[in-house]
Write a structure and sequence with these properties.
alpha+beta, 42% strand, 2 domains, single chain, 1 helix
């Protein structure tokens, strides 16, 4: 009986490690094929409700535009469908709120985003236009 205990512990540790691996894989954001021609940089988003002008965002990956309503929040994203030129991304945020965005690639520098979901306990549904306007400005003393 004493010999079977280490085997059980090893099996338990292996199962736990496997579960952690699954969580890490599922938590990793997928890069949509439809957005492959795009690149990170400075993106300008216009058409957001209540905005006085376009918002400028420095993004490593334009797929983050899917969660425009929840920008700056920690969210997990899942690609629901992906067939060029359109991808659908569903996301859920840690602090609450969720959404789904249909992103249509117009050109490698222009994306139409139809987004809907719940933000601050209220529904939202709108369309914005995003365009890449250049590289991100270098910040003194900080990598970009």
């Amino acid at each position: 009986m004493l010999n079977s205990r280490p085997v059980k512990v090893v099996r338990l540790l292996a199962a736990a490690a496997g579960a952690v691996g699954v969580v890490l894989v599922l938590g990793a954001a997928q890069r949509p094929v439809a957005l492959a021609p795009t690149s990170g940089g400075l993106w300008e988003v216009s058409g957001a409700p209540g905005a006085k002008g376009p918002a400028r965002l420095c993004l490593a990956d334009p797929a983050f535009l899917a969660q425009f309503e929840h920008r700056g929040r920690q969210c997990t994203r899942v690609v629901v469908s992906d067939s060029a030129p359109t991808t659908v991304i569903r996301y859920t945020c840690v602090a609450g709120g969720f959404g789904q965005s249909k992103m249509t690639l117009i050109t490698p520098r222009s994306i139409r985003i139809e987004t809907q979901g719940i933000s601050d306990d209220l529904p939202f549904n709108y369309v914005v236009q995003a365009r890449r306007v250049g590289d991100c400005p270098a910040l003194a003393g900080r990598p970009h």
